[in-house]
């Protein structure tokens, strides 16, 4: 008798991405509004994706079983 199917957490799938090597990436917070108060270098640093801390990557990887 087969067990239950694993479902991907829909909220996590919109926010995180797993790389081919298994690392978890996310988009850093702080690029939505109130950007006039931040320096150019701060805004540049927040561009793109960054790696999730190793402490949380295991938890997030569990929420994304098929990615």
From TrEMBL:
It holds the Pfam family Ribosomal_L35p. It comes from Nitrospira tepida. PROSITE patterns: RIBOSOMAL_L35. GO terms for cellular component: cytosolic large ribosomal subunit. The keyword Lipoprotein does not apply. Residues 1-47 have a biased composition (Basic residues). One of its GO terms (biological process) is translation. Keywords: Ribonucleoprotein, Ribosomal protein. Residues 1-67 are annotated as: Disordered. Signal peptide: none annotated. This is Large ribosomal subunit protein bL35. One of its GO terms (molecular function) is structural constituent of ribosome. It comes from the Bacteria. Belongs to the bacterial ribosomal protein bL35 family. The keyword Thylakoid does not apply.
